């Protein structure tokens, strides 16, 4: 058969090419601007963060009364319902994974048969461009649906969702991230984008889906659907909800990769600094149920119930225990050295390149493609280009392979190959990417032509890079694995060309390459190693995988941050990394404290409260409650802490001293009222307080947390380091001491400790002289230093960078008030 | 062939039988005593605990100066050396595992050939008792060596070592537990006891070995060998050392079971409440290196380097993905229900029975067999009895199996079987138990006769129970697995006898049984599941294993504690469980505080210090440093915390104000001096202070920790709950507030939080009115309550129980001052 390029063919290709050129030209604008100032880009799209999660129960009188009323049996029941919720989370997550998998398989199969028939029709007679157009249109149509629902209905459902979940587990409440609507859009979106042939995976979105399921199930109600099942009411608070969300994320990982332990470690790596045995055990349970549910229902779907061979959406297939072909001592050692050198550095470099390209692309998108219809069009363009590129590569490739070498090719395409052969390039593009990864790992030596692999790597690399960040729900795991497996296998094939022997079959090199590429892009370490070990199902590969991931991370980190971190940063989320920035060692507490302290009296005028809450310049989320001395000379004494959300509930229910006196029968406010308002507390503006009511008084004693975290004040002459970072629950509380007038001590953050400013005011134990309120809506404008304007300026220059923009090197994305 | 019992045979059996009867009679004494009072038993053998580990760096001026001097590069180097140390730990642990494995194999092989030849000689002619005696003597000889070195040289090396490591990671410094001598005795002991045919495993001791290796390597010196390599000096402190010991324990688990992830989780489960990503990553690295080293060197030993098929000392062999034989939907579901019901409860029950029997046996041992020579004799007796019982069972069994059914029987014994057959019972006893476990898992249906399995289970159960707690180094993992696998397989075989179908092959039931039995005995949950998943190498088995372990634990916990917990309790270690006892919810802080507070002034008279340190009634390990007001009316203000060990170093170096003035050139005390004294600080009695020196003054400012953990005092009128439990590093710090005279607030431990009294004094931020000093040498005598004698009595009745004897139900092992 001959390849004939008709006029029509070339014109179609030309049009697509022009579209690409146009976009590239647009992006060049960025490069052209000499004094380009990225901060504005970020600031323009910076939406104020609602608030942070409240990781500590407010142990006020209501809370304690409830705890006291609760019997031992009550605590038992709670514990059991936690387990039930985790089981449900796992089950539903597994079901969703199963649904996505089946839908994708059906749609892909449908598409393949349509296109294959068409291609076969035109292969002989020419005019393959019709097939191309058909393919491109089909893909674009799928992607259009996926992009429209994401761009118009729920933009937060775009991307893999892992950055968002990382942020959530890190303690940042990103609006709408765990809502039902997000889940629906996510699931539908990922089906569309994978079926649309985009260079994406369906694994990342599973993690987000699991988290949403968890957030929904654990609350026993749906705020969106306005349906309250009156169950699990106890869990309606940030502390409990976050635990379940970590379980959901773990269940998602577990379903995606068949890696329950990896899921647990993912949750721990992203979420925890406190190891709670029972919680971990529950998370593990959710993960187990999740992978089992997926496995079971897929086996039912495959008409073979009980043949549990699909623990995850992707299976690496089983590798044999014998890592090497030759069994000589020096070979084993040198292979381990080579593994690191062949796998890690290229993985790190390519990963960094990928991330850098994607960073620039994302900035371009933030700047120019922020209208939903543009986003949809871009997604469709990418889909069309992906189809075209794939088509061109299939068209020009001569990678014919005999059909019998590979057992179980689902989508063999003969094209110009001889009978009994198939085009391996076509297979790689037509297959579900998961299957292609498996093939690269397990096909016998000789299944792939080096050129095919090389071209495939390059094309796929750029396509994947272009695709990530589109307004579609899609993950980057599978493309990374595929790119890595391709170049890994290429290295494995090429080694004998150089005067080097081949020590392991190319499939092993493909595995190493896949791990390196993935590690180079996402930079997860511990959990990724375990995920890969579980996916390969062989502990023998643990050490090489670990070494490769480590070197890839080290090499990659030298050039560029991880992909998720980049996207988190571009969303201007005050993400707190697990390690304090090295320069923070000498940052003193005094420098990050605000003054004067915004505080309330124990019995406070309603008007004062409303004014303070409405004041946009002091919109903290937590306020100290103090007892002033009668003469007002001595500084006020701290007696508790009250949250904005609590005050709003109090105002809404008009819990005023005067009203309580007049209506004796008035129902006492209970914890239930706070729970009912959770998690969508109304803004202060929506609460009407009449002029009369403004003069009423509110007694905060019952509702404040009488034991907020504080740091003691050092005695006057000790030039000691005051604040310690306490590790609490999943995050470090940053305790700040206040200082009395005569104190000369100043605080300092001990090196190597986790640095986390928090919503809660941090105050001296007895005397308030400063407070640190961070992560509140207007993080950027509400930090003052106690002393001088110079210090303020200094602080804004230093700490905003430190806190917000960790590891910022050359890119100066400082979002602050200074110029 | 006929079985002939000669006169000689029966007499030998009789003598052994009598010995057993005598021991049983002795143990009956315990039962006979009506008002038996176990406390005395425990108290008699209670050696004072040295102290607890110091989990917080004392951030005094010396420390801070050193940190300040350290460059960024210095911190980098430290980090790198931590990795190097972890790599070394993993490597050495792997080597030790390899050494033990090879030695055991060689010695067992030797023994087998000697005995086999002898048996074959006497099989035909009768007089097999000669063989029995030979066997018993051989075994006893091995065990004697093992028992002698343990009983006479290092008793702490006895048993599996897991309870000791649990305690160490829990924060209790048990003397000599991580010394070189312990390691040597442990390794030699475990080789002897396994080679001696005792019903023991070599897996448990690996964990202890790994921990010792870690403690040794990380310090860069050997105090026992008096050799200082002048490296890793920075790590000579409790905080760093403990981290390495957790890595060592993980490496041990990893080498024992080929389960690196399981090892990490073991460490976390036992050691951590704080999740430190870098630390976990390093622990994982050590585990990986450990399993790889073992794997590699075993492959070299097996003349097949690179064929890495031995990741652990025990391999379960590979299970297929298909858990079930029948693939019907309802079968799958009902099997999962059955799994829990067939596996969990019997496992839990048998485990509880095992633990209860072992508990009584251990008390008997503590009471009557505490002299080393008696211990050696008991060990020899057990060895002889084990040999005899095995022999009798082999003798009377007709479990002949054709030789070709099972491939690779290392030790087939023909005995009275036909040619081409072998005695499967003999194989079970002669094999290394690891191999027997594998056989039970993987031999095809029909390999075992149900009666063989039943008798084997019962015999092995009692032998294992008798053996654990002997003065030999040995673990209980393998015997548990073997017992469980035997009855699990029995259930699997018996199911078709009842009108129940067989749904899975008996090997799967054996696996479930093994997990259940092990879970029922040791009651580890999370880590054990992961270890078993890794050992089976198949994630599909995760859910059933997890369910079985959970039910086994729940059922077992209802009757009796876990084996390790029992032994920890019998050693009277103040072990702090991960959950607070339920009754502690209403325990107030005031009740556990001591008064008057033993404190020092910032500049204190040497005589006062020496007297206070020597005073046995106040032998706390941490002391508040205070600044008294001039007039003495106001309460003293806290300015720091100083440890007993620091004071001792200061006294040793005579850091007195007067001397500093007289000798200006005197070298300033550095952190190095404290490190050199670590970890074996001399007792105060060994430090000579002359009468003149007693009048000198000591300035503690430089050496005290100026920021000890405290809890603020609440304002006078808030009846608030003061103390929070803060989670710090691996354990919860129990912060106690002090109260000023006018305060009516009192403290209370919030429910569900970890309750941990600590060595450090817990004091009010400004004013000291009480302190809690626990886990100090005389834990039992040094807790007073602040207020009244009634409260003291009450407290001693309540809290000692609470703190020390968690979950004590009927057994009243209260070691306190009350009657």
TrEMBL record, chains A, B:
Gene3D superfamilies: Clc chloride channel. Keywords: CBS domain, Membrane, Repeat, Transmembrane, Transmembrane helix. The chain crosses the membrane at residues 80-104, 125-153, 183-201, 244-267, 279-301, 329-354, 374-396, 451-471, 477-498. The keyword Membrane applies. One of its GO terms (molecular function) is chloride:proton antiporter activity. It is found in: Membrane. It is a multi-pass membrane protein. One of its GO terms (cellular component) is lysosomal membrane. InterPro entries: CBS_dom_sf, CIC-7, Cl-channel/antiporter, Cl-channel_core, ClC. CDD domains: CBS_pair_voltage-gated_CLC_euk_bac, ClC_6_like. Pfam families: Voltage_CLC. PANTHER family: CHLORIDE CHANNEL PROTEIN CLC FAMILY MEMBER (PTHR11689), H(+)_CL(-) EXCHANGE TRANSPORTER 7 (PTHR11689:SF136). This is Chloride channel 7. It comes from Gadus morhua.
């Amino acid at each position: 058969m001959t390849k004939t390029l008709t006029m029509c063919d070339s014109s179609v290709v030309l049009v697509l090419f022009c579209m690409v050129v146009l976009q590239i030209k647009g992006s060049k604008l960025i490069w052209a601007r000499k004094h380009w100032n990225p901060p504005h880009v970020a600031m323009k799209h910076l939406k104020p963060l609602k608030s942070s999660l409240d990781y500590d129960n407010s142990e006020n009188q209501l809370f304690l009364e409830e705890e006291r009323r609760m019997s031992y049996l009550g605590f038992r029941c709670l514990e059991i319902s936690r387990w039930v919720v985790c089981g449900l989370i796992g089950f539903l997550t597994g079901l969703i994974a199963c649904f996505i998998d089946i839908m994708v398989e059906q749609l892909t199969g449908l598409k393949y048969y349509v296109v294959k028939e068409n291609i076969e029709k035109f292969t002989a007679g020419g005019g393959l461009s019709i097939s191309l157009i058909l393919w491109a249109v089909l893909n674009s149509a799928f992607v259009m649906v996926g992009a429209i629902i994401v761009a118009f209905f729920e933009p937060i459902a775009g991307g893999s969702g892992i950055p968002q979940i990382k942020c959530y587990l890190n303690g940042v409440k990103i609006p709408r991230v765990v809502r039902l609507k997000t889940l629906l859009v996510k699931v539908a979106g990922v089906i569309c984008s994978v079926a649309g042939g985009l260079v994406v995976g369906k694994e990342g979105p599973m993690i987000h889906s699991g988290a949403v399921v968890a957030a929904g199930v654990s609350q026993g109600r749906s705020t969106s659907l306005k349906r309250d099942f009156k169950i699990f009411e106890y869990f309606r608070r940030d502390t409990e909800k976050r635990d379940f969300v970590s379980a959901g994320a773990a269940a998602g990982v577990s379903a995606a990769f068949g890696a329950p332990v990896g899921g647990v470690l993912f949750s721990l790596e992203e979420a925890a600094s406190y190891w709670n045995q029972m919680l971990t055990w529950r998370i593990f349970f959710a993960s187990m149920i999740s992978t089992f549910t997926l496995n079971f229902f897929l086996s039912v779907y495959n008409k073979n119930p009980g043949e549990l061979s699909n623990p995850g959406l992707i299976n690496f297939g089983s590798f044999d225990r014998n890592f090497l072909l030759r069994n000589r001592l020096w070979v084993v050692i040198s292979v381990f050295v080579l593994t690191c050198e062949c796998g890690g550095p290229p993985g790190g470099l390519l990963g960094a390149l990928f991330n850098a390209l994607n960073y620039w692309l994302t900035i371009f998108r933030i700047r120019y493609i922020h209208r939903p219809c543009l986003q949809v069009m871009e997604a469709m363009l990418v889909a069309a280009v992906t189809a075209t590129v794939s088509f061109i590569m299939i068209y020009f490739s001569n990678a014919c392979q005999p059909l019998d070498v590979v057992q179980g090719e689902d989508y063999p395409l003969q094209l110009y190959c001889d009978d009994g052969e198939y085009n391996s390039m076509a297979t790689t593009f037509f297959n579900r990417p998961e299957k292609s990864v498996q093939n690269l790992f397990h096909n016998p030596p000789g299944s792939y032509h080096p050129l095919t692999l090389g071209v495939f790597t390059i094309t796929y690399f750029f396509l994947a890079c272009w695709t990530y960040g589109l307004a579609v729900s899609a993950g980057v795991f599978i493309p990374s694995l595929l790119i890595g497996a391709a170049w890994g296998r290429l290295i494995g094939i090429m080694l004998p060309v150089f005067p080097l022997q081949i020590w392991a079959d190319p499939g092993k090199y493909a595995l190493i390459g896949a791990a390196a590429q993935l590690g180079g892009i996402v930079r997860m370490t511990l959990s990724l190693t375990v995920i890969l070990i579980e996916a390969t199902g062989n502990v023998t590969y643990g050490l090489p995988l670990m070494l490769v991931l480590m070197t890839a991370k080290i090499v990659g980190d030298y050039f560029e941050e991880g992909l998720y971190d980049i996207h988190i940063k571009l969303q201007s989320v005050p993400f707190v990394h697990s390690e304090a920035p090295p320069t923070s060692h000498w940052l003193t507490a005094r420098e990050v404290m605000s003054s004067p302290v915004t505080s309330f009296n124990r019995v406070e005028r309603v008007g004062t409260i409303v004014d303070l809450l409405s004041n946009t310049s002091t919109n903290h989320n937590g306020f100290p409650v103090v007892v002033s001395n009668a003469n007002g000379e001595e500084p006020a004494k701290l007696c508790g802490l009250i949250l904005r959300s609590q005050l709003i509930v109090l105002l809404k229910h008009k819990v005023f001293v005067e009203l309580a006196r007049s209506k004796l029968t008035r129902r006492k406010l209970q914890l239930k009222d706070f729970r009912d308002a959770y998690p969508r507390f109304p803004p202060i503006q929506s609460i009407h307080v009449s002029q009369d009511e403004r003069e009423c008084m509110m007694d905060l004693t019952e509702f404040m947390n009488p034991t907020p975290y504080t740091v003691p004040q050092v005695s006057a002459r000790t030039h000691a380091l005051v604040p310690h970072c306490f590790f609490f629950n999943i995050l470090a509380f940053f305790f700040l001491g206040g200082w009395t007038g005569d104190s000369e001590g100043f605080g300092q953050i001990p090196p190597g400790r986790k640095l986390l400013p928090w919503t809660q005011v941090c105050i001296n134990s007895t005397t308030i002289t400063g407070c640190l309120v961070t992560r509140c809506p207007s993080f950027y404008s509400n930090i003052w230093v106690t002393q001088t304007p110079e210090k303020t300026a200094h602080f804004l220059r230093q700490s905003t960078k430190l806190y917000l923009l960790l590891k910022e090197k050359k890119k100066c994305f400082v979002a602050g008030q200074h110029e």
